[in-house]
Fold these 3 entries.
Entry 1:
Amino acid sequence: MIGPAPGPPPRYPSSARAPGKCILFGEHAVVRGAPELVLAIDLETQVVVRTAERTQLNADPGALETNRYFHEALAAAGALEAGWDVRSVSRVPRAAGLGSSAAFVTAFSLALRGDAAGSLDRPELAQRSFDVERAAQGVGSPGDTSTSVAGGYVTLNAGPEGGEPLWTVRAGPERWEVRRATDPGWAWVVAYSGLPRSTAEAVKAVAVRLEQPDGRSLLEEFAGVARDGIDAVRREDPEAVGRLLGRNQRLLREVGVSHPRIEALLDAAAPAVLGAKLTGAGRGGSIVALPVPGREVELVRRLARAGAVAYTVRPSAGVERVAATGADPAT
Ligand code: MEV
């Protein structure tokens, strides 16, 4: 049985697209319940699902063994026994801190439900996508998956200051409250260093660091910066946001997830930004920068000269079904 809802039987091929994300404030600390602000970005993943004799992902029949996200998504849908031909094409660089796994899991989980009519239960899909990502990764918060489901600006654990309530995501006794924050209408730039990194390893290393005697006060500082950052975005105060991005970066450095390549990109960006920081798990991966208005192109050039792959990004809509034409998304 695919999907939770009774109704007409699902039809295939079926397709969905979902956005990647960049974390503006609060990565790592969100895993321990601190506030976070995340933006869904217009780098997206599209997945097409067909029924087939045997299961494969992008023509790889070994993917069930090698790709845990693929395996866990099928398991969560109760669809491991059937055969699926799955194609995924993405503009989100992998292992770059930009939410490639969340975008895949979210788009795939929706596409697996087939092309049947019916409204999309976003709270249910947010919980399912987080369950899948957490089962595959073993650690983490629902920030990435919920942002991929919701689109736009999203807060976690921020209380009423964080916007209108969307849903609550649970893992055992843990819970994260997800809200829709207002969009200030700014351009952001993200830049991938070219150094892939593992979210699970970075999260575990930070957990060890936060066990130290100053861990509690560090966590409080993370929470304070994220709360102030969420407030500054809500007030549409870019200068304050820029300063707070810098403070968040100092904390991330303190817990050991920056990297010389990341610091080099932040230096290269500095003359053209109001503020910048690493985004995502760190130890490589990407940065996010708030450009000085009018200097977005200069910023992208500076980052490219420093060896990064840079993108000007705008907010993306959340996951949605795409009409499956029968053609592969890559063609
Ligand atoms: C990863 O994109 C962000 C982390 O906070 C982990 C998580 O929240 O799942 C490092």
Note: DSSP finds ten helices and twelve strands in the chain.
Entry 2:
Amino acid sequence: MSDVRSMNSSQLFERSKQIVPGGVHSPVRSFKGLDHAPVFFTKAEGAYLESVEGKKYIDFCQSFGPLILGHRDPDVQEQVERMVRTAWSFGAAEIYSLELAEWIVEQIPFVEKIRFVSSGTEAVMSALRVARGNTNRSKILKFEGCYHGHVDSLLVKAGSGLAGASASSSAGVSQNVASETLVSPLDDDEALEKVFKTSGSEIAAVIIEPLPANYGLLPQRREFLERIFKLARAHGSLVIFDEVISGFRVGLQGMAGLEKFTPDLVCYGKVIGGGFPVGAYCGRKDLMDAVAPLGPVYQAGTLSANPIGMVAGLTTLKKTVKVNGWEVLEKRTAGFCAKLNKLFQDHSAPFTVDQHSSLFWIRSKTAKSGPIRRIEEISTNQSQDFKNFFLRNLDQGLYLAPNAFEVSFMSLAHTDAILADALKIMEKSLKG
Ligand code: PLP
């Protein structure tokens, strides 16, 4: 067999498919529906990825969100290298997670206690257990189009890699488990009232992405989020904000801080680990005190609070604060998206771009103007239009998140010059 280091992306994909399901370790990486083999990468730096072919790409995927500073930020790299020379797993009490925990608790008033895990999925799974353990109720209410990781009970009408696919839930999730999950549409006050009226007393928690960003970008009306709190409070249910994407991405305190909500529990992932496998669930002290070893809700992890992830996360967060990162990114992304929208108009392209802070989503235009809030409002052309645009950009060295329903991410490494290059590439792509 030839050395994988001497093969091109198509050859590597074929080879990988022999032993890895779909050739990849997470579905969206396969470029499914894009009629193209995924690009295999070897290196990353700042705003760029480099493929096995030696081609450079401006990267707007940024590992699906964790890399708010860009790839291999030098300050993060320095701390990670220092940590590697010190220890890379203790499986014991240590100081590094305490530093990150204290920093977060100091910055975010509704985070009174925090437990680190190794992924967003684990954070969500654990938060649900805490909610059930505290309320002695079994049902969870989620929203159609929100994705909360591959937790069994939440793979019910989920988005992300499943969006656009004909099956709306996963095989292997038993009917019993699925039946514990209630699903309501986003942006639908009436449906929400109804589900609480019929099942309110059984609902342990409502979980929502406060900025739904896994089935395109579907910002919700403030009144809708308020209604969730009002109904949950009235029925004794908890509110869990899944801020795995939005946490430390839209601002230091995530969507909860921006919109001034006080969720009972919050889930973090992505940015909190600066590109290393870290997640966290946290929130009200009285609820978190139910977690083992203090309380009866069991949750554990061999590699939880891994010191490399802890220092990468803390360095990333502190640096973002120091450079006023969220404000810089908001301005930068808004400016970029305004120019991109102008390009779409000038070229009579069928697209528009929706933006929130450093997230943006290129979508097919629909008759309705303004942001769209529900999955049914997404154009039926989305998959086809996006595929064409994605592939033209890819060909010229620009990498968007490789799925029509995934948002793209701006990082602090995307300088004005790089963004000008990106717009040039996109303009050429529109010319065909
Ligand atoms: N929750 C949200 C909102 C997410 O976007 C994701 C992943 O994209 C998850 C949970 C799961 O996180 P992970 O992929 O780290 O398990």
Note: The two ends are 39 Å apart (CA to CA).
Entry 3:
Amino acid sequence: MATIHRHMRLLSRMCYSSLASQKPSSQWGISGMDGESWNLLHKKMGPEERNMQWIFLGCPGVGKGTYASRLSQLLGVPHIATGDLVREELAQSGPSASELAGIVNQGKLVSDEIIVNLLSRRLEKSALKGETGFILDGFPRTTNQAEILEQAMEIDLVINLKLREDVLLQKCLGRRICSQCGGNFNVASINFEEKEGTPAIYMAPLLPPPSCVSKLTTREDDTEEVVKERLRVYHAKSRPVEEFYRSRGKLLEFDLPGGIPESWPKLLAALNIEESEYKERLAA
Ligand code: ADP
């Protein structure tokens, strides 16, 4: 536990400070470094001096990645998905990758220590590029992670995406990734009737262009058994994170009304974002 807090203190310093020196990373990034070696000037930026620091919460398959990525492009802030950081580690061969694969492919959570180190390393890259702000997707996933993050930096807003559970399973099973361009698609055609007061929902498939069709892959943890386990783990470990932010007045609940064409404009409206205004700003 003490190690995790030390990493988060470093993480905080890295994000808010000018870096005076850089140390080589060890297996998980910053293990082994101590605060003194960084010789950093600690300065927490207020919200007026930096870009937004937002979090997307929600069950597996809800679309955190899709909406976080769209918002990050629109708002010009980095989209940081801890699931992607984990998959990058998995793609490396070696003992740490096979240890991770064993955890992820069973639908379990990676240890706080590993995930905090991966996130620290990613935020460090952003800080070195002079980027401020982020849209976090997939972190925090436990109240312990939320507490660690809270000690390190201020979170402005947490968007909790919601979708009925039968849809979540179908969306995970329909997910496809192009092994060449990395594009995310979904072959599931969702057309669910109203059920026990839950409104009917329609989501068209998000089909790949012809150039990607022969290169589609499925995530190893997107099998029915593993998705069900991920949903169980979400209810047990991540639901309390919603309450953590609700009690701090930071949680925005958003029920997805359908696919991207219906949900995106409604999400922007809920966030009070004028798409054209941001597009003009980015183009200027
Ligand atoms: P999901 O579709 O379940 O939201 P992600 O792509 O966010 O999946 O994450 C994939 C896997 O990576 C998770 O099932 C978990 O094993 C690991 N992971 C990602 N983020 C975290 C985290 N914050 N804490 C622990 N494990 C994580």
Note: Strands lie at 53-57, 79-81, 134-137, 157-162, 175-178, 184-186, 190-192, 201-203, 216-217, 251-255.
